[in-house]
């Protein structure tokens, strides 16, 4: 497998018809993860929450998985991965400054693990799931 780290086609999204929708959903996901990582969680949410590190891994895997399906260029995916890892680290430092949250290096490890997992899966059939779902939707619902 050859990787393309040239800047040509860096932000190209020709394979998706509903680009703006998918990017908007991704930005919303980013906001949900960032805000829910910083605010104090209500007691009922804490009670039903899975193991903390699993939640961190799944959240960041979801973010990387989502954006790596939108942006297929290798250099863009690298920048996304680095950006999400930096976001996870920054949020942990911010949590350490709040009275309701705490700094935890293992959360950073879990966040990074999720990013790396989805980055690797992006190069398998999983990386085409969003495009496949969009195609199926267009065929069945829109009949185009």
TrEMBL record:
UniProt xrefs under InterPro entries: VanZ-like
Source superkingdom: Bacteria
Coiled coil: none
Record keywords, A-Z: Membrane, Transmembrane, Transmembrane helix
Keyword Transmembrane helix: yes
VanZ-like domain residues: 51-124
Keyword RNA-binding in annotation: no
Transmembrane portions of the chain: 21-42, 54-71, 78-96, 116-133
Protein name: VanZ-like domain-containing protein
Organism: Granulosicoccus antarcticus IMCC3135
């Amino acid at each position: 497998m050859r990787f393309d780290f040239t800047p040509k086609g860096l932000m190209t999204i020709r394979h998706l018809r509903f680009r703006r929708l998918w990017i908007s959903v991704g930005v919303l996901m980013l906001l949900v993860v960032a805000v829910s990582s910083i605010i104090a969680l209500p007691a009922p949410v804490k009670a039903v929450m899975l193991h903390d590190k699993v939640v961190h891994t799944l959240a960041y895997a979801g973010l990387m998985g989502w954006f790596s399906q939108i942006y297929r260029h290798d250099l863009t995916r690298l920048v996304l991965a680095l950006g999400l890892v930096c976001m996870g680290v920054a949020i942990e430092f911010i949590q350490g400054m709040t009275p309701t949250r705490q700094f935890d290096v293992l959360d950073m490890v879990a966040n990074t693990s999720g990013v790396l997992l989805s980055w690797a899966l992006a190069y398998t059939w999983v990386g085409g799931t969003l495009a496949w779902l969009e195609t199926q939707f267009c065929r069945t619902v829109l009949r185009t």
